[in-house]
Amino acid sequence: MFKNKLLLVLGILCVSFSLYSQDLSAIKNIDVASLSDEQIATYWEAIKEKGYTLSQLDQIAKVQGIPASKVAEFKARVNNLQATKATEAKIINDQVAVNLKEEPFGINDEQIVKKDSTTSELFGYDFFNNSKISFTPNLNVAVPDSYQLGPGDELTIDLWGASEITYQVTVTKQGQIKIPGIGFIYVNGLSLNSARPRITANLKKKHSGIGAANSSYAKIYTNITVSKIRTVQVSIIGEIKTPGTYAINSLASMLNAIYAAGGPTKMGSFRKIELVRNNKTIGNLDVYDYLLQGKTNAKLKLQDQDVLLVKPYQNLITVKGAVKRPGIYELNPEETLQDLINYFGGFTPKSYTNLFVLERLIDGKEKAVKEVTLAEAANFKMQAGDKLLVQESLDIFKNKVTVNGEVFRPGNFELTPQMTLKEVIDKADGVTKDAFLQRGLLVRTYDNFTKENIAFSIPEVMNGTTTIALQKDDEILIFNKKELKEARSISVSGAVNKPTSIDFIDKLQIEDVIALAGGLKEGADAKNIYVSRRLNDGSYKTLSKVFTLSSSKNLAINDGEPFYLEPFDEVVVRYAKGYTTQQSVSIAGEVGFPGAYVLQTKDDRISDLIQQAGGLTEFAYPTGATLKRKAGFLTKDLSAFQKLGEENDSLVSQSSEEYTVAIDLVKILQNPKSDIDILLRPGDRIVIPEVMQTVQIVGEVYVPSLVQFQAGKSLKYYISNSGGYTDDAKKRKIAVQYSNGEIQTVKNFLFFKSYPRIKPGTKILVPKKPERKKMSTQEIIGITTGLATLGLLIQSLVN
User: In degrees, to the nearest 5, what angle opens at C-alpha 270 toward C-alphas 264 and 272?
Assistant: First the structure.
């Protein structure tokens, strides 16, 4: 068995050797399907080494007498092998892309130092403080020809044409790449554009077709690219949020690196970030160039072991007022006010630019105010600590007059020379139909302070009888005639569908206003309508005059003498005597037929409702029965009903709040129609609970709980079963609330206490002692001083 395997291996080696030496002729005697993918790949590489392509295999096979079927099978194996490799490469690239996408660039929100995490007025600070900005170097763009090669870079060298082969080589620590069959080539420090000719010249030693003419069948084309960028170690120190050493892609700029470290702190400089290499400063980064102009210093490329140094700021200037970007700006020592203006984006339309106010620290002791004009800005140098205040222009007009009130186009108008009051009213398209024509006002201002009033008649001004010349800041006011007198109206209330108040109209009759109020309600007494009218007869005794009128229910027009209403009349439509709507009560709980019941008479009582509901069930607990009554009956205002002229239940429905009325249902049922048998009112609700077997203890006990009722047990028994009193319990004020709503308290007489009897469903309430207010030191001193003074006074009186 071992011998057979050895012979098979030797046979495969011989076949492989013969394939290399005999081109395609050896394919005649072997089974292509029996070859492995590695053998197919080895054979295909040998064919490509000799400069052949797949399309040329058919012609070579004819010359060497190889069957076309075998050539086609071999080409199919090669194509399948190339497709498999392409799929694997795509999967690898996709995974690399996912890894690159998932890896965050720069610090996140949690890594930002808390003291620097708030929004700052310092210009540029919040740019680095925002983790939502993506500032990752773009790895998908082609590497520029100016890219400087170094250790760790990976090159892809593609050859195609007469020979197809790809070399993947990496720049070693010694700055060299090694190509199989060629040897080492030194590329460290060369740009990609400079390295290509050197690499190509060495490739010619092995692939002579590279130097062939483009028209030659033996021509080999080359392409040299950077397939993997090296990583460099850069130290970022100084006034930076997260100082340290960072592994950064060599394509990253200084700005990328600063962003990765979180940006400068509030103490750091944004204007002069130094790039130190081999103990020498080789360049500076000005963040303002990027933030304001989008410019970066493309010449400064990061290399391994570079150091970025963020020094403290030099000159901070505060800008406030009417500018586009108020804030705090860092200026270089040689920069002027004009540079600062460029940084904050200029002025708003409301800015007062004739004169700026500047606050400046003098000799480190005091501040001084300096005035600077815009013309001096280019030569005025700023100093550290300066505060520039740009004020807004005053809201003062040189040629404005104003027209307000009853004109068609109120507002401000241009004051032209010799303009008159009539002209400006004409500009406002004249007065409206509601204008009060008898009097208008012109308010004139002198010296921005003193005012004078000039009254005028609008008709006289408009017909030219009166001419008034206008001046700057004149304000004309045209009144509304309705605003100058009380609004005349008529109110309708009572048994109408829509009680309302309407504007007065001449010759309105009773039927008219009732129709405007939606007509009469069912039950309205059309023969009993009251009209209350104001009087002005000089009598202090008579308040108003009341008319009693009648009308037809269908509001038809009659031939009688009309009664015309006057302004401010109040019309009240009464309900017919004895008319009332259905009024209901309800009963719930352990009765035969719980639900709502309509009151039949005003003398209906609790016992009557119990009887209508079929009496109590065998599970009823009458001792715990309660009456729930709406708050409207406890706070009703009879005068309100008289004014509305409606049923009493209208006000009851205004409040949904209920109060519990304690009743003794046992005695009520034993003595129906007695004084304890309470009269029912609309909205009343009777609740009959089922038999109760527990007692509830709440308040200042250690374990507020429900305790099973035990006949004959005292209040102390239930307190004890709830853990006893707490230290804050006020035992003298214990209250007991029975299930019917009745409340009793502990009674104290000398040293004796009388506790309420406990029944099923009882709630025991243990109150808390009030907190004692401790006297402050000042209060104690005050009281002591007062007592001492009082003692001295008494002693002096005695003596």
Answer: 115
Do the beta carbons of residue 629 and residue 684 sit within 8 Å?
A: yes
The answer to whether 746 and 764 are in contact (CB under 8 A) is no
Residues 11-31 have a mean pLDDT of: 49
Longest pairwise C-alpha distance within the chain: 154
Q: What is the pLDDT of residues 277-331, one digit of tens each?
A: 999 999 999 999 989 988 877 677 888 899 999 999 989 999 999 999 999 999 9
Please, which residues bridge with residue 359 across strands?
369, 387
- Beta-carbon contacts of residue 714 (< 8 Å; ≥ 6 apart): 755, 758
Residues near 757 by Cβ (< 8 Å), separated by ≥ 6? none
SS3 149: coil
d(CA 508, CA 438): 29
* Sequential DSSP letters for 221-261: EEEEEEEE--EEEEEEEESBSS-EEEEEETT--HHHHHHHT
The position carrying tokens 């010759």 is 507
Going by their DSSP bridges, the two strands 280-285 and 315-321 should be labelled as unpaired
Q: Rounded to an integer, what distance in angstroms lies between the CA atom of residue 83 and that of residue 76?
A: 11
The tokens 């709630």 sit on which residue?
763
Burial class (CB in 10 A: 0-12, 13-18, 19+), 231: middle
Is the CB of residue 228 less than 8 Å from the CB of residue 154?
yes
**Among candidates 267, 250, 258, which has minimal Cα distance to 286?**
258
Among 293, 273, 291, 292, smallest CA distance to 283 is for: 273
Q: Which two tokens stand for residue 121?
A: 């007025």
Distance CA 790, CA 797 (A): 11
Half-sphere exposure of 688 (CA within 13 A, CB side): 26
Which run of H or of E encompasses 470?
Answer: none
Closest alpha carbon to 589 in 561, 623, 553, 625: 625
Residues 101 and 140: beta-carbon distance below 8 Å:
no
How large is the average pLDDT for residues 725-734? 87
What pLDDT shows up at residue 137? 60
Q: Is 755 helix (H, G, I), strand (E, B) or coil?
A: coil
Detail the DSSP E strand segments found in 516-598. 524-534, 544-549, 570-575, 584-589, 595-598
Distance CA 616, CA 591 (A): 4
Distance of CA 753 to the CA centre of its chain: 61
Cα angle 329-332-335, degrees, rounded to a multiple of 5: 90
Distance, in Å, from the CA atom of 272 to the CA atom of 263, rounded to the nearest integer, reads 13
Contacts for 673-676: CB closer than 8 Å, 24+ residues apart = 673/605, 673/607
CB 584 within 8 A of CB 599: yes
Q: What is the CA radius of gyration of the chain?
A: 52
CA distance linking residue 418 with residue 632, whole number of Å: 70
Find all residues with CB under 8 Å of 375, minimum gap 6, and list them: none
The band of 478, judged by pLDDT with boundaries at 50, 70 and 90, is very high
Q: Would the pTM of this model clear 0.70, i.e. be above it? A: no
φ, ψ for residue 239 (rounded to 5)? -85, 70
**Phi then psi for 310, rounded to 5 degrees?**
-105, 110
Q: How does pLDDT run across 409-426, given as a tens digit for each residue? A: 999 999 999 999 999 999
- Report the distance separating Cα 68 and Cα 110, nearest Å: 68
CB 267: neighbour CB atoms within 10 A? 12
Mean pLDDT of 168-183: 91
